[in-house]
Each structure stands twice: as C-alpha cells, then as structure tokens.
Specification:
This protein is an alpha/beta fold and about 325 residues long. About 30% of the residues lie in helices and about 25% in strands. The chain has one domain: L-arginine/glycine Amidinotransferase, Chain A (5-stranded Propeller), CATH 3.75.10.10. The protein has helices at about 15-30, 40-60, 75-80, 100-105, 110-120, 150-155, 165-175, 225-235, 290-300; strands at about 1-5, 35-40, 65-70, 85, 90-95, 130-135, 140, 145-150, 180-185, 205, 210-215, 245-250, 270-275, 275-280, 305-310. A three-stranded parallel sheet has the order 1-2-3, with helices on one face. The chain has a three-stranded mixed sheet with strand order 4-5-6, covered by helices on one side. Helix 8 (about 225-235) links the parallel strand 11 and strand 12. It is globular, with a radius of gyration of 19 Å. The two termini are about 15 Å apart. Pfam families: PAD_porph (PF04371).
C-alpha cells in the first residue's frame, strides 16, 4: 500500500524529485505482488492506474495496481495504514488512531484514510476494527511468533497516549496484537527523525532469531553513545528459549544534510520485505554497496532491490515509512 504524494502535502515543492522514488517502489513491488495506491488527486490516480498496469502487463509481471481516491495529509502509509493480525477466522485489520507523531503536523485526513479505503470496498469482507489508541506501524516490529520489539522513547511519549502507562500499553498490545512479550529499547535515535525513535529506523527482525540494527563506528559522531547503548541492550535480549539473538550490524551511511544544514535520518534499517524480495533504501553514499552485500547475506533466498531514497529523507522518512504490507486475499479488486 502506498499513499501518493500530492501538492497539498509537504512534498509540494519537491514532487519532481519524490514521485520518481514512489514510481521506483511501485514498479519493484509489481514484480512480485499487487499494489494499492490511494491519493487525493483523482486525475493523478487515473494516470497511475493506466501507466503502472500497462507497465506490469507489458513486462509480464504478476502484480496489478488498484487505485482508490482518499483524502490524505501526507504519504507515510506505514504509520497511518492498517495493521493486519492473523486470527482463527482469517486476517483482520486494525485501525489505530494516528496523530502525526504526537501532534507535530496536520493529521485528520490521514487518521480517517483507512475508513475511506474500507468504505470504498478495498478490503472486501475482511473486518477492520478501530482501536482507540495512538500507534504507528513504524513504532513496532514483530517476529511473527509473539515477540514485539519497540522503543520506550516513542510508545511512552505523553503526546500520544498521555493517560496510559507502560503496563497498560503492554496489556493492550497483548490483547489486540496477540503478542506474548515486548522487548523495549531505551536507547537509540537518529538526528532529523520526527517520530521519537521509531523502531523501523533502528532495529529490525530478519528472522525470529535474528535482528539487524544500526550502529555508528565514529566516536566523534553525535549518534555514537546512544547507538552503542542500544547495541548493548540488543546483546542482552534473549529469545523465548533463553538464547541470545543473532545480531547483524548494518553499515553507517555518511552524514547527509538538507539545504539548511540539518542532518537527515538516513538508515539502511528502513528496508521493506515483500514476496521473494527485499527493497533496500540507498542514498548515493559510499556505504550503499556494503549495505547491499549485508542484505544479501541476511536474506540469501530473496532478491535485493536497492531504491534511491535520498529524496524521501528530506521529509525525514524512508522506504519502509511510505509503505504498508497487506496479506494476500485481503484486497478486493
């Protein structure tokens, strides 16, 4: 699922730079699976529906594009999109509240977007349940077997759920997500990150027993201490059977700054796993090649497709942040 950028978003002055990134993501996804694109501008959606479906058909790709008009403040589908859980009766969609990372930006349209999609029939008969709790998809990382990885900096920020403490959060997530335990990281951040340390920029499950993570080797870098402390926390974490996790450190990209000199949150942890492939954000820096090699070692059975996301990080997010996966069989053409 992608929420397409339009002139009413913060991308207004950089659509020429960012739309090609979204198109690269869309074409890569279509090599392996279907794609839902929502957006506010109907004419642009009609063009995308025509052009991307023609691209898929002419290249013999298995994926097809489904477009649906829906008002949107921005493009961060990972955080305003539906979160899917497996139940005894099949998949169910959870529509958590979204408040733009603690009210930092306008969010009302994004908060209603999932309901627009459901009312348009995109999800067919798959049930969607509203959850009266602020939670972004980028703030949680699951192993698929009951363990959730997250950061206290994000989930405990009072601008999201001010009346809910850590114990209540654990109880709610256990109930609605079906998790049996939560691993909390208390350290780790990226400069330029608006999300209060989303886990999907810092550490990710590669398998139930394997976590890859961001590390900074430069002791003079402002990130060194926080990321070193995060690494120590990861080394202390244990799997349910008591064994340590396999850990893989990701390369640290050279600093990237915007035109005002602000450092941007470039991270290789913001990759997207799809059917038979991994889409990896790259940034036009020397470390991109090593990041690709590391991903190939982590996911030897999957194609590794680098996507130039330098334009994305100018709005302080990357590849995983603008996408949301939906299980096969949920979307109704």
């Amino acid at each position: 699922m992608l929420t397409w950028p339009h002139p009413g978003t913060d991308w207004a002055n950089s659509l020429e730079e960012v739309e090609p990134v979204f198109l690269d993501i869309a074409r890569a996804v279509l090599r392996y699976e279907n794609l839902v694109i929502s957006g506010e501008y109907v004419a642009r959606l009609q063009e995308l529906d025509r052009d991307l479906n023609r691209y898929a058909q002419e290249n013999g790709l298995p994926g097809r594009v489904y477009t649906v008009p829906a008002p949107a403040n921005d493009t961060w589908a990972r955080d305003h999109g539906p979160i899917t859980v497996a139940t005894d009766d099949g998949p169910a969609l959870l529509d958590f509240r979204f408040n733009a990372w603690g009210g930092k930006f306008p969010f009302e349209k994004d908060d209603a977007l999932n309901r627009h999609l459901a009312n348009a029939g995109v999800f067919g008969s798959t049930p969607m349940h509203q959850v009266d709790f602020v939670l972004e998809g980028g703030s949680i990382e699951a192993d698929g077997q009951g363990t959730l990885l997250t950061t206290s900096e994000c989930l405990l920020t009072p601008t999201r759920n001010p009346s809910v403490d850590r114990t209540a959060i654990e109880q709610l997530l256990a109930e609605v997500l079906g998790v049996t335990r939560i691993l909390w990281l208390n350290h780790g951040y990226l400069a330029g990150d608006d999300t209060d340390s989303h886990i999907d920029t810092l550490a990710r499950f590669c398998a139930p027993d394997h976590i890859c993570y961001v590390t900074c080797p430069d002791v003079a870098d402002e990130h060194y201490s926080a990321l070193a402390a995060m690494e120590e926390e990861l080394q202390e974490f244990r799997q349910p059977d008591g064994t340590p996790y396999r850990l893989t450190a990701l390369p640290w990209p050279d600093p990237i700054h915007d035109e005002d000199g602000e450092r941007l949150p470039a991270t290789y942890a913001n990759f997207l796993i799809i059917n038979d492939a991994v889409l990896l954000p790259v940034y036009g820096v020397p470390q991109d090649g090593e990041a690709i090699k590391v991903m190939k070692r982590i996911f030897p059975s999957r194609d590794i497709l680098p996507i130039d996301c330098r334009a994305l990080i100018h709005q302080h997010g990357s590849l995983h942040c603008v996408t949301m996966q939906i299980p096969a069989g949920v979307v109704t053409p």
